[in-house]
Amino acid sequence: MIAVITQIVRRLTAPPIDNPELLKAQYLALARQLPLMYIILLVNTWALAATHMSTAPWWLTIGVPCVLTVVSLRRALMWRRLYGLTPETAQIIHILTRTNRLAPIIAAAFAGWSLSLYPYGDSYAQAHVAFFMAITVIVCIFCMMHLRPAALIVTAVVNTAFVIFFASTRNPTFIATAVNIVLVSGALLVVLQNHYRDFTSLVNMQSRTAKLSNENLRLANEDSLTGLPNRRQFFSSLDMALQRAQREGLRLAVGILDLDGFKPVNDLYGHSVGDRLLIQVGQRLAELADAHTHVARLGGDEFALIFTDGRDDDALHVVGQAICARLQVPFQLVDVPILIGASLGIATWPDMASSATEVYEFADYALYQSKRHNAGSMCLFSPRQHEQLHRDAMTEQALRKADLDEEFHVLFQPILDCVTGRTVAFEALARWTSPELGAVSPARFIPVAEHIGLITHLTLPLLRKALQAAAAWPGDVRLAFNLSAHDCASPGSVQAIVDVIASSDFDAARLDLEITETAIMQDIVQVQNAIGSFRRLGCGISLDDFGTGYSSLSQLHALALTKLKIDRSFVTDIHQKPASYKIVKSLIALSQDMALGCVVEGVETAAEMAALRSLGCTWVQGYLFSVPIPFSQTLTWLERDLA
User: Fold this and answer.
1) How far is it, in rounded angstroms, from Cα 197 to Cα 195?
2) Residues belonging to the active site
3) Vertex 184: Cα angle to 179 and 190 (nearest 5)
4) What is the pTM of this model?
5) Which of 246, 350, 443, 611 lies at a 20 to 30 A Cα distance from 533?
6) CA angle, 308 as apex, 306 and 310 as ends, to 5°?
7) How many other C-beta atoms are found inside a 10 Å radius of the C-beta of residue 187?
8) Which architecture, in CATH terms, is 231-381?
9) What is the pLDDT of residues 330-375, one digit of tens each?
């Protein structure tokens, strides 16, 4: 029996432990209201004691009120101290449970004390006792309405004592008062029940709204594919990390990572495999990260890292190379392992950058330099690159303001037959003389034009000038013209080039358009379409800088190529470098097996030329024969061939 009663009491006094938000709301409401309840109780208590001091014993009018005052003040001060604090859920449960269990004890103490004063005094004093109990139950109901069990228990204790006691007096006035109090308490309990239901519903609705808001915030800051923080969260984290670094005087580094060879994987195996590859890349990056490294996906195949522990350049080189090496390990997503690479650019604050925007832009520039000069590795933004970035910014501004027809022109470098020594073609090379910067090297302005997307605006006027000049050459001399990756990136740009060729007086069958491996790797399907359009005009297609990119033999077979151009990096000192000798030998043999023409560029010494002749090289170009020359000198050059 005792166990059953104990279980019932526990159930009645237990707060809603399965609803943490409701617990917190109840706690906050009680922390505001219960101190007021205790103050009102004490004021009423001493008012009742004062009306009975002349008739009741001192221990009833002084002793007991003092004890009740001490207990009430302690409880009031405890709740006042808790106001504004937000304890853990377990502590809130303990506080509310204790309040529920103390409620009947405190209510019984006040009710019992007030009823003990009834025998003393006249009818007015007895009416004051009834008023005290009535007002007490009303105050308790209102102040404890957010903790329903406590309010119900207090109401039950006080009303039961009130009704039983005053009904026993057989005084019609007191009996009527008791009935009125019961009716008023019942009405108040109905109001309490409705208010508590609305209060609970409001708290639950706010909780659901908060959860939905938090979920939306999470989704807004999380990459849906990899689960990593997205671009928005990355920049938010960067701002916070920079503020912390400023406060603590730490060095901060930002890394921007881009996958090498991801596009061909997407094209060859489909987007589902590409997505799975990105997920695994994200997992590998997360595994390499520690408490001081934040990883995010910026979009596409680009990821970002924030290093917040102030590591030095050597440590950044170590972690950067480790990241690149980890992503070069094959991914097993299909029947054959998938091989990709990753280029990484890192910039530091405050030694190189002064703001979050700068450190990100400098890291992006370092990434660009890494992909351009040493793909598959990391590049740390340096003072030299800072100077170069400044020069590039000046170049960019001058490019944007340049009169393309007036400031740009073409020079021509001969391509010779190794056996006969006769000129078989000229390669058109862009040159720029800026009114602000003077003569600007192609090595300086072409990368900038590609980076900012202006290269396609340069191609058309330069191609038009080259075709116009080449129309004056003999019919057996060809023209080679370089196209950038951007020129082949869209049907619109390809069609513009086709229109320029078709409208010229130059025979398209004598034109070789040179395309780099970079263009092929970016979008092989679009490049195939572009090559198809050029081949239908009769143009030849050369693969420029062959051997320096990532194209595979299967991709070469998929393209309607007519020539390969072997990069100058393999030719320099070829007679002294066995590895370069073997590479060039293999590339020449490959071109012969594929029935493709082969041009070796960058020949600068007689020793290099002798080595190339021994390998069976057919066509060559380089400073050994001629620097790039203006159109007028090409005519003189060709007359020399005829002599």
Assistant:
1) 5
2) 301
3) 130
4) 0.59
5) 443
6) 125
7) 10
8) 2-Layer Sandwich (3.30)
9) 888 877 788 888 999 999 999 888 899 999 999 999 998 888 788 8
